[in-house]
From TrEMBL, chain A:
Record's keyword annotation contains Ubl conjugation: no
Keyword annotations from UniProtKB, A to Z: ATP-binding, Cell membrane, Membrane, Nucleotide-binding, Translocase, Transport
Keyword 4Fe-4S: no
Superkingdom of source: Bacteria
Name recorded for this polypeptide: Energy-coupling factor transporter ATP-binding protein EcfA2
Root EC class: translocase
Residue ranges the record marks as coiled coil: none
Name of the gene encoding the protein in the UniProt record: ecfA2_1
Assembly and oligomerization: Forms a stable energy-coupling factor (ECF) transporter complex composed of 2 membrane-embedded substrate-binding proteins (S component), 2 ATP-binding proteins (A component) and 2 transmembrane proteins (T component).
Organism: Secundilactobacillus silagei JCM 19001
Pfam family for this entry, one: ABC_tran
Entry's family note: Belongs to the ABC transporter superfamily. Energy-coupling factor EcfA family.
GO cellular component, as recorded: ATP-binding cassette (ABC) transporter complex
PROSITE patterns, A to Z: ABC_TRANSPORTER_1, ABC_TRANSPORTER_2
Localization annotation: Cell membrane
TrEMBL record, chain B:
Presence of the UniProt keyword Membrane in the record: yes
Pfam families in the cross-refs: ABC_tran (PF00005)
Record's keyword annotation contains Transport: yes
Keywords noted in UniProt: ATP-binding, Cell membrane, Membrane, Nucleotide-binding, Translocase, Transport
ABC transporter domain sequence ranges: 4-238
Name of this protein: Energy-coupling factor transporter ATP-binding protein
Gene: ecfA1_1
GO molecular function: ATP binding; ATP hydrolysis activity; ATPase-coupled transmembrane transporter activity
Superkingdom in the source lineage: Bacteria
Compartments, record wording: Cell membrane
Organism whose genome encodes this protein: Secundilactobacillus silagei JCM 19001
Amino acid sequence: MATDITFEQVNYWYQAGTPFAVQALKNIDLQITPGSFTAVIGQTGSGKSTLIQHLNALLKPSSGTVKIGDRIINSETKNKRLKPLRKKVGIVFQFPENQLFEETVIKDIAFGPQNFGVSEADALVLAKRMAGEVGLDEALLKRSPFDLSGGQMRRAAIAGVLALEPEVLVLDEPTAGLDPRGRLEIMQLVTRLRQEQNLTIVLITHQMDDVANYANQVVVMGHGELIKQGTPREIFSDPKWLENHQLGLPSATKMAYELQQSGFSFKTMPLTVEELADQLTPQLSEGAISHE
Amino acid sequence: MAIIQVEHLNYQYSNSDTKAIDDVSFEIQAGDWVAIVGHNGSGKSTLAKLLIGLMAADSGKITIDGQELTPDSVWQIREKVGMVFQNPDNQFVGATVADDVAFGMENRAVDRDTMVAKVDQALKQVGMSAYKDREPANLSGGQKQRVALAGIIAIAPKILILDEATSMLDPRGRQEILAVIQQLKTDLNLTVLSITHDIDEAANADRLVVIDDGRFVEEATPDNVFNHGQQLIDMGLDVPLSEKLKDALQKRHIAVPQSYLDERGLIDWLRTSRLNK
């Protein structure tokens, strides 16, 4: 009973029906299949955050439909009975540490499930398990969430969403403001959750290296429209187009394009350092090969 | 001449068992760009707050432009220091870009004609003249940080402190803002102190000061620090792409140069080592 999410001709206006109406989404067609890892990229203000709020009906389309599993959401959908969707699709918003509020880390993580009718005792057991899942040390659980470091707070917030036991995990720039070690740890956590719990992942990010390393589907947003969709390899094969849309390349790909100017050739453009090294090695002269 | 002198600085938060800043000493020469690097929680931001007197050190001495930082001198010293924070939204007050740039001068009772001229000049220096009458809220992240910088330039500080000022920007926005700062540093002979864990920003500095657990670890040029490989991760920095690629090539039995190369340098080495068919 894996959850498919399908957008059909979705439009969304903020302040619809007023003189201040702004169209934030235009004719979006999109499918997110179970177990996939979708990266959503695009400039600030391109509609990324509006898009993900449609994934669990926090926003409803002004026109068009969003199908989440067997539920169809359109402009007529009543706010009743949307709760199960919020449990099925968990969203970790930007700077989620701002939403921590309980006295202790464990209570904070257990807050979500209790909202969905889980008993306090069961919620605490679940919370403890999820804290372990995200790699939060047990000694930290009795502390105030505000005593944690930035990376730890981020994990606590993710654990809080995981405690809802969602099938789809949506993350809005989960590594923003973290140092490189914190960033790597969060991305490794997301990858592990996907593999071990078979979670579907939707990630908003500005880090093209993360797109190259982790995603299997990329959605590019621009001015409220879905302007391109494909695998990372397809998206990063057109640097001109990316440049025109003020988007970058993964760092290894960027370097490969520069090496092309120096006479190197690449069968397919490398997306990672390992792929780049693989293709460079046979193109280097005998003198550069170590004979140790 | 040292424009910033820090001697045996100590600071401990009241709710903590360990010192956030532990006997830190260093000097920054006028006109230099120094980056303070360290992982999250290493004490970088605490150090910045002590330097501009937002918090008072438990012991030790800070001297800025020949003047010791004390409760009496703090206001005079802040006149010489401009600071740009991580999130420009927290720094905006004006209804238009021009109003916002003028704010710092209003606080300093600059007369109107001078102010108008200085706002225009500052916006020109950061390449934002066309946005003068726009609302700051509708700008991109990179543009917002430029406006924040213009506000600082308008009050002509001697020292610019950047507290993770590029961490919220996309790579393009970051490059833009670093280029603007580099230009300002030259034009105005600014001393720049940037607190960062971004490798590109650190690469722009003349020297790096590495802080860990509130202690001074080392001071060196970026090249010498970037040579540390995986240790860089513990310092709160990323490993530069050129070093990652060197590692990957070495694993494939390529005899790469041992010394640090930046991307340009590695591309040059690869070009000369290319097999000519």
